[in-house]
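pasting for ref. prot 1 ->
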Amino acid sequence: SLSSSSSSSSSGAAMDWSKAVEEEAEGEDADEEAMHSVLLIGPNGTQATRRLNNEVGSSMQKFIASQQYGHNANLDAGVAWGTSTVQNPVAPSATWVEMVDRNGDSVGYRAYNGSDSNALERAIRNRDYHNGVWDVRASEAGQVVISVRPGAAAHRAANPLRRDDSDT
């Protein structure tokens, strides 16, 4: 994980994470108790992502460049990457509907079941909320800790390689 300490944004004002912060459960260590999850999704997710990028983006780039960063996640070769339905929710299947337009031409379009589409939307939101690739934590003192979940990223990256999209 990458740790960066900063207490002001690029505009010089103190950073306000209050709308993008989720309180941690009680009973954690004293150091961990001061850290809060930064929600990069939801109603304030875009703003939180932009603020995070403004606050620590250049520090992250400098850190990676100075370390000649080359991280190997050592992913388990026995896992069928790309098969996780949590990381890659199954999209609803399309039904082809053909109609005749005003000119008498046959026109086809895809139609989807509304409840299946809504279920996909909920699955994607839940995935990003609970099992996202990035885990970002911030303290009121201005410390930001960013961790990656390589397994989540590997499942998402491998999924298109495993899919058969020949019918789309």
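and prot 2 ->
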Amino acid sequence: PGRMDRRPSYAGNRRPSFASMRPSFDGSRRRPSSDEFDPSKVNMDEGVKRERRKSAMNAISMTGSISFDMLSFDESDFEKDKTGLDKLWTVMTKAKESGMTVDQIFSFFKSDAGGDISPLDFQEGLSKIGPALRLTELELADIFQTLDTDGDQTIDINEFKEHCYKIPRLAWKAERIRMEREKRKSIELAEKLVANPPKS
């Protein structure tokens, strides 16, 4: 429990179908090692972080919000990534560093306002990132299974958030700490209200 490479048992060993996307190259099925989940071992050049922060602030000042349409990716973004999951983390981390919330990133992959992410939604969302992001059909299926923890062939918002908060990149570590701090504050406030209910 708690490992990000935990995979659901699909009936009849069925995988999500990504047949309409042709593999760009032969990918490895290597699972990330335990070391890759240590956020303290993941570093980013300070100059890169400053440039991304500056770009995000410029975009916010012009539009008031951030979206994937404002982000650009090239092959250098993924040159250190060894698996499809690594590449997904790079995409989601760049979005997070640019100011997007988990809900905004989740919405990018959805085809409708209130639904979950289907295999087709997921494939189409990743294809919009651009040609720099190369994933094989096998890698797509493996990534989808990793996020689809209950094996129902969709990724809901809770599954998505659970995965995001465990991404071993510094931006997500900071977000996880912020989320846990807010959760503790909410619990403390609720306990105070129970102990000292407002007078009617």
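The chain is about 45% helix and 0% strand.
The two ends are 45 Å apart (CA to CA).
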